[in-house]
Amino acid sequence: MQTISTSLFVLAGILGRTSGGTSSDSLVIPPASESELGVYELIGHSTCLSGADPRAGNHINYINKQTGSDLECRKLCDEAKYCSGYHWKVDDRWNPGYYPCWLYNGVVPANVDAEPSGGKCWKKAAFEYVLGTRGEKDCPQWSVHIKDFDECGRAAVALKVGNQGPKPYGPGLWYEMPTWCSFRRMAGGSPPEEAFFNRRAVGKNYGEYTAICKRVPVKDRQSPQCPDRPRASGKCETIGMRCDYGDECCCGECNDVVSPLVSTCTSDGYWQMPPSLCKIGMCTPVPVPTPPPTPAPVPTAYPTPSPTPGAPKPTSGKLGRNGKCYREGSTKEERDGACAGDLVCARKGHDGRDFGGCWSFFGKYVAGWPWWYHCCSAVPADGSAKRRLDVDVEADWSETGDFVMLSSLRSAEAFCVLAKERSICGMQCAEVNEELREFLPEGLLDVCIGTDMSIRDVCGNECAAEE
User: Fold this and answer.
1) DSSP characters for 337-351?
2) What is the Cβ-side half-sphere exposure of residue 144, based on CA atoms within 13 angstroms?
3) Is 181 a residue whose pLDDT tops 90?
4) Within 10 A of 330 (CB to CB), how many other CB atoms are there?
5) 6 CB-contact burial (10 Å; exposed 0-12 / middle 13-18 / buried 19+)
6) How does residue 151 score in pLDDT terms, banded at 50, 70 and 90?
7) Which residues, in sequence order, are bridge partners of residue 359?
8) Is the pTM of this model over 0.70?
9) What is the rounded CA–CA span in Å between residue 372 and residue 435?
10) In the predicted structure, residue 391 carries a pLDDT above the cut 90
11) For the chain, percent helix, then strand, then coil, each to nearest 5?
């Protein structure tokens, strides 16, 4: 009888050579202890079934091998990437002295045949879960984040990562680790690995953590999935779909108010989110008045010499692309003359022009919508203002990426994270509110209007981390 290696078996599993038990190869398996192998869950004392409706067929394809013990059968399943579970018969009643090892392929066992057949049905726990890439927050293709605390613990145990216990650390609201289920491998630490469950919606990954994810079964891979980011508006397809994105911490350290970020597809076919419980300023301490400074001595003023009559006025250089130009002249021609080369001072919808214009992002002027200002712009060479403007916008945003980031702001905490990352904590809050009013959720910075508060005053914890 021919002996085949485990590597050939794995290849057979990958190629999908699964049948109702047509192979009867006998394998020589090196001995192993149960503690060295993966985690398995006992389903029942019979052959495995898929748990599907019997009318649709609930049998699972398997590869039929012969091994000398249950442990040897388990070792084969451990080494086969696509083995979802196994069944080893103590003795085949139809073939006395024959010990079949059925290695199930691709479908997770969930039930057993009602008729006892000898032996046990085991589910390979690790088959349902998969690890992400260390340092990244997202899950691999065809897998999703684990959003249940207890399942996070089961997954960590199944994959033999984390602190090897049934409970991960948490649930927590940590800023420095990914949202949902993950683990961290400690260098020389005790324990060497730790699993965490984090509900904070803006959790980061600074390179130490690996996401623990759940595989999406093949039969469900065409089903609608939740959007990557929370949605508060727009059309949706699956009525009743509920998408949980974690919690938003309203006061930095998450010790007070926490606001859930949940998007629901309502009966009218549109995404909806409950109003955020977080408001800018709700956690800001009452400012303590400071005494007026002691006035400094005023130096004696001396008259400034008058300029020589007839002396030429200094001329400024021409403005480059996206230079703000409206105040450079009182007529269109004068404003055009302030721009360098062939550039003209344009703003879409003004001065009879259907192109040009820009907006500002904290002092940097960027071409394109929402066209707040007259800026030095290139005249479309082919007469298509829209096409040229699209090219300009694409060039600007390929360098900054700020538009995508601003468009994704949905909460107070997300704004404070942006403030830290873009180093705008020292800016006047009212100025930022005016600058970004098109992008901020309605009323987010209204507390700043008419005050001299800075962004640091309203995003204390995030801005303190910047320092």
Assistant:
1) HTBSTT-EEE-TTBT
2) 17
3) yes
4) 8
5) middle
6) very high
7) 366
8) no
9) 10
10) no
11) 20, 25, 55
Residue 1 exposed, middle or buried by CB count within 10 Å (0-12, 13-18, 19+): exposed
Residue 178: in which H helix or E strand, if any? none
Tokens (6 digits) for 404:
């995508």
Q: Rg of the Cα trace of the chain?
A: 33
CA–CA distance, 12 with 161 (Å, rounded to integer): 28
Block residue for tokens 């914890």: 461
Q: Which residues pair with 386 in a beta bridge?
A: none
Strand partners, 145: 213
Residues 6+ apart with CB under 8 A from 289: none
Here the tokens at position 92 are 């085949």
DSSP SS3 for 96: coil
CA atoms within 13 A on the CB side of 332: 7
Instruction: Tokens for 70, please give them.
Output: 């249950």
Residue whose C-alpha is closest to residue 137's, from 196, 88, 203: 203
Alpha helix (H) ranges present in 331-445? 332-337, 385-400, 402-407, 412-421, 429-435
